[in-house]
């Protein structure tokens, strides 16, 4: 097998730069979906059900994008066409979703409209997001994969930081943060508009700067015949033949993404109740708490960026992975007991440590284990199931668990903390291919 040459820092940067824009869109979605649907009139016990759609679309879309892009060869590349189409659709839907309550529809109709918009938004984000993981697997050698995914993690967190603080920033410069009952405030609507503009500009940059390998060159660098990666990919057979690492990392992923689903769903209610002493979604305090959630998620992103720079210093990647998840678990549990909005920074810095590891570690382990298997895109699309399935499970059982823990949303954060610690314990079963050599 020919060895893929080392890429310069800026070549690695260009591979993932569009991810910055995609992550702004994802951050706006994750920080504001519960706020939007609560504002439209959703009951807290039903909030988790609105979160079923995003991972459900991910588990459908990403394997399809991966499989089709394995067989797509155009003058624009194999992954990039999917990236561009996904981003273009996301831009359109980002302009519609926050306006769900602004078209004079009834509450039920507004929620249905919002759900449809959310479905298309997450479909398009998933379509735009997955190619970035594949580009690193395609273009980067094993020696540089850790660095490449670290750069991707940095850009991911930088994009998250921007997306999370937009509503707070727009409120600070005088844009309205309250609105009539059932209507999303302008501070959120404008955030989605600006995020959409940044998304398309970033994707255009990556599209212009990245040149993908043609089929013959790709086959030479990946120990494949030219037809290996173009042959029909049967997902059942691929899963049967997947390396053990694929499944073991997937087990860790289950507990990790189960936990973060509850962060996205219940942080708004937790912060509003603990720090603003309100559960009234129409109140000024609730909307201020909604803005502050964006700030807390931004603090999480900053903590993640800092921790991502520390992670490569660990010689034992499994230790780094498990320690990160434990720190995140402690952070989740702490949020239930903090009642000062500024002291909330501490647990969210710890949660950022877990997030940094979740963005980089799983794909490093799995792409190294997949070398020589072919169908890299299909495998990574299927691996996305280890992200989506736990979120779907968490969303389905969220209302029932909330009832069991007394209907207190902050208790759901403790549940999330326990899940992350269980994920940390499962790291021990992973075999690190590179460490074993």
Description:
This protein is an all-alpha fold and 437 residues long. The protein has helices at 9-40, 47-50, 53-70, 80-94, 107-139, 142-172, 186-209, 215-221, 235-240, 244-275, 284-310, 317-335, 345-369, 376-383, 385-404, 409-426, 433-436. The protein has a single domain, classed as Up-down Bundle (Growth Hormone, Chain: A). 74% of the residues lie in helices and 0% in strands. Helix 1 (9-40) crosses helix 6 (142-172) and helix 11 crosses helix 13.
Please identify which CATH superfamily we are dealing with. MFS general substrate transporter like domains
Summing up helix and strand content along with how strands pair, one would put the structural category as mainly alpha
Return residue spans where pLDDT drops below 50 for at least 5 consecutive residues.
Answer: none
What count of domains describes the coordinates?
Answer: 1
CATH topology: Growth Hormone, Chain: A
- SS strand fraction: under 5%
The total of beta strands comes to 0
Mean pLDDT: 86
Give a quick precis of the structure.
Helices cover 74% and strands 0% of the residues.
Which helices and strands occur, and which strands form pairs?
Blueprint: H1 9-40, H2 47-50, H3 53-70, H4 80-94, H5 107-139, H6 142-172, H7 186-209, H8 215-221, H9 235-240, H10 244-275, H11 284-310, H12 317-335, H13 345-369, H14 376-383, H15 385-404, H16 409-426, H17 433-436
What keywords describe this structure?
single chain; 437 residues; mainly alpha; Growth Hormone, Chain: A; 17 helices; 74% helix; 0% strand
